[in-house]
Every structure is written in structure tokens, then in C-alpha cells.
Design goal:
Blueprint lengths: L1 H31 L4 H23 L1 E2 L5 H29 L4 H24 E2 L2
Antiparallel strand pairs: 1-2
Helix pairs in contact: 1-2, 1-4, 2-3, 3-4
């Protein structure tokens, strides 16, 4: 259990760093460049997910015998699901509850973080 907690704490700080990347790109794209929130969110998520992938390679070990291309495809699929979660939460908070775009982005990132950690820890990378 200590190893699992240690990995979670490490991923939390990687995730926090990537969240700031995500939020910064979103803020700049949406508020400064006036790009619609959905497109700005996709751009921000993709940039942050790329940073996250490379940092996760430091924390998590590849599963033995798994090809790198398979691992990459799994990360892309998990990222697409995480992005869907992020966008759904944003749309809900903006369109239904009338929250600000930035608040909705932060909430969407928080929910997607949980999925992203679980997918990497238990399905994509080795947790032994």
C-alpha cells in the first residue's frame, strides 16, 4: 500500500504541474486569443497530456514485454477518454450551471485527473 500511495503522490505533483500547463494554455487561448472554450480546452488538454506522458515515463515503469507503440496507443486512448470527461464537465458547468469558463476548466481537469491516474497506474504502466 505504501508503494501505491507513493506513486499517487508522485503522480499528483506531475498532474498538478500539468494542470497548470493545461489551465495556462486554456486561459491564453480562450481569454486572450478569444478561441471558443471547447477548442481551447482541446488544445490545452493535448499540450498538457503530452507533457504528462513524458513525465509519467519517469514515475511509472513500462509493463514487461509490452511494446512501446502499444503503450503509446493506450496512453492516447486513455487521453481521449480523459479529454471527453474534461469537456463533458466543462460543458455541464458552463451551459447548464452558467459558471465561468475558467472555473469549469479547473473542475473538468480535477475530474479527469482521477481517471488519468487510475488508467496509468492500473492499466497502462506497471504497478509492481
Amino acid at each position: 500500500m505504501n508503494a501505491l500511495l507513493s506513486k499517487f503522490i508522485q503522480y499528483f505533483f506531475v498532474g498538478l504541474f500539468c494542470a497548470f500547463v493545461n489551465w495556462g494554455v486554456f486561459y491564453f487561448s480562450n481569454y486572450k486569443l478569444q478561441i471558443t472554450y471547447l477548442l481551447a480546452a482541446v488544445m490545452a488538454f493535448l499540450i498538457a497530456a503530452t507533457v504528462n506522458f513524458f513525465l509519467c515515463k519517469i514515475i511509472f515503469k513500462s509493463k514487461e514485454g509490452r511494446k512501446k507503440i502499444t503503450e503509446y496507443v493506450m496512453v492516447v486512448i486513455a487521453g481521449a477518454i480523459g479529454l471527453s470527461i474534461d469537456l463533458a464537465v466543462m460543458a455541464l458547468f458552463i451551459e447548464i450551471f452558467n459558471f465561468s469558463n475558467m472555473f469549469a476548466k479547473i473542475a473538468g481537469t480535477g475530474v479527469a485527473f482521477i481517471f488519468n491516474y487510475a488508467s496509468r497506474q492500473f492499466f497502462i504502466f506497471s504497478h509492481k
